[in-house]
Design a protein that fits this description.
4 domains, Beta-Lactamase, 492 residues
Length: 492
């Protein structure tokens, strides 16, 4: 029997625990034989069972109490452990929140002006702020990715078009694209880490590099043309742009060089220069003047023949009006011819004109001029030649005088004289001829002997004319001619 039940029976009922079984047995006998009510009989009969259940209840209570005690002991240890763990986690979270707060403050100080100010103990505000910062950081990252992609595309396009390299401030190559390697003949490994002087040639004047370094060291962009030497020893020309990249203080930290291969253009320019020198040599050795004027008619080019013909030095004539070289009495006509060229009224001009010399006399020059027009169709000036024909003009004048004298003699000679062309047409008859035949000279002009004489007489003249044209020289023969009155005469 449980000790608590035994103590209660002794104190309340006066029955010792060890006597409880005998007393209960005696009460069962009384219930069976005595005249008691059924309720009393059932109470007495069930008292043993009741006490048994109470005893078990006390026993169960002891067990429960022991379990609770043990649980409380265990729970106390676990609670201490949980408390320690919570303390550690709280300290970690506090450090994380402080770090998060410091990060947010740093981001706010970094220029995120659109974000609300940070409240020290407002965790919800801090969480919202961090969400905004993360969103903005993500947007910034996306923008940065877009910019980097655009820069990558631009770099790709630049590498495809140009020769690109980067150097440090001492000129040591830190990057070289494929085009640089190809044109220089060096591998990328042979270029990286070496100075840009590896491709320098002696064709560049030393002052050029002094100016280059002075410019880029001052954080300014340099433009120019460079002649470089490839690994093979061949020269190549580039049009160069060198851009300095600077730190926050404005000092260059590296340089990027963007070059374009202009070797072919330089070769063409050299050939053109040679051709121009040869052409100028030929032109300046000519005995006729080669000239060019601008749209106002002022000389822009004259070869040395101008000085030989006019006595004026080329340098003092350039820039002066070309029409000022024409005598005053011829200037109006020359002006009209110049404006006719400018207005496209004529395609070119070929004539003889007088030009004044330094010595006050005039020289006859054969002028050939053609108008020049620009791409827009505007008159740009004239170009052409001046050929000195003064001696020829004097010879022609003398010849004309001599021909005039011959003409006078032709007219006064008393013998009949005529002149025909190769077709036998009469071109000129003197007075004696007209008197001999009794004709008017204009009646025979342009006619042949066949038109004027009977067939039997004209045949001999035609044959003799053919012979003299074939044999060339002089010819003497006798023949009859018919006069206007139809009479005939013998003539030599």
């Amino acid at each position: 029997m449980h000790k608590l039940l035994s103590r209660q029976m002794r104190r309340v009922l006066g029955v010792e625990g060890e006597r409880a079984a005998a007393v209960l047995d005696e009460l069962r006998q009384i219930a069976a034989h005595a005249a008691v009510s059924p309720e009393a009989a059932r109470l007495l009969a069930g008292l043993d069972t009741f006490l048994g259940q109470v005893d078990r209840a006390y026993t169960q209570n002891d067990r429960d109490l022991e379990l609770r005690t043990r649980s409380l002991d265990l729970s106390s240890d676990e609670l201490l452990q949980v408390n320690e763990r919570l303390r550690i986690e709280l300290a970690s979270r506090t450090r994380a929140i402080n770090s998060l707060r410091d990060t947010a403050c740093g981001l706010l100080d970094g220029g995120n002006k659109a974000l609300p100010p940070l409240i020290e103990d407002d965790i919800e505000a801090l969480s919202a702020l961090m969400a905004d910062l993360v969103r903005q950081r993500e947007e910034s990252r996306n923008d940065l990715q877009s910019v980097l992609a655009a820069l990558a595309n631009q770099k790709f396009a630049l590498d495809q078009h140009a020769i690109v390299s980067t150097t440090d401030v001492r000129g040591t190559i830190t990057y070289a694209n494929d085009k640089f390697c190809k044109i220089s003949g060096y591998t990328r490994g042979e270029l990286l880490g070496h100075n840009h002087r590896v491709t320098r040639s002696d064709a560049n004047p030393p002052q050029l590099f002094a100016d280059l370094w002075a410019t880029i060291s001052a954080a300014k962009v340099w433009h120019g043309e460079l002649c470089n030497r490839a690994k093979s020893g061949d020269f190549y020309w580039v049009s160069a742009t060198i851009v300095p990249f600077c730190d926050r203080s404005g000092r260059p930290v590296q340089y990027i060089s963007i070059h374009t291969d202009i070797s072919e253009r330089k070769r063409i320019e050299a050939r053109l220069a040679d051709s121009e020198r040869n052409f100028r040599s030929v032109v300046e050795s000519l005995k006729e003047v080669v000239f060019r004027t601008d749209a106002d008619g002022c000389w822009t080019y004259l070869n040395p023949a101008w000085s030989e013909i006019t006595g004026f030095a080329v340098h003092e004539s350039l820039g002066r009006p070309s029409l000022a070289s024409v005598p005053a009495e011829d200037r109006e006509r020359a002006t009209g011819r110049f404006f006719a060229l400018a207005a496209r009224q004529v395609d070119f001009l070929r004539e003889e004109a007088r030009y004044r010399t330094r010595y006050g006399d005039n020289r006859w020059l054969e002028v050939f001029a053609r108008a020049e027009f620009d791409a827009a169709g505007r008159f740009a000036g004239c170009a052409g030649t001046l050929n000195d024909v003064t001696e020829r003009r004097l010879a022609l004048d003398q010849l004309e005088e001599q021909l005039h004298l011959v003409q006078e003699l032709f007219e006064v000679v008393p013998l009949p004289i005529y002149l025909t062309d190769t077709a036998g047409r009469y071109l000129h008859l003197n007075r004696a001829f007209a008197g001999f035949f009794g004709i008017a000279r204009e009646d025979w002009a342009g006619k042949t002997v066949q038109d004027l004489l009977p067939g039997e007489l004209s045949a001999l003249h035609v044959e003799k004319d053919r012979e003299i044209l074939t044999a060339v020289g002089q010819q003497v023969y006798e023949a009859q001619v018919e006069l206007r009155d139809a009479s005939r005469r013998d003539a030599i």
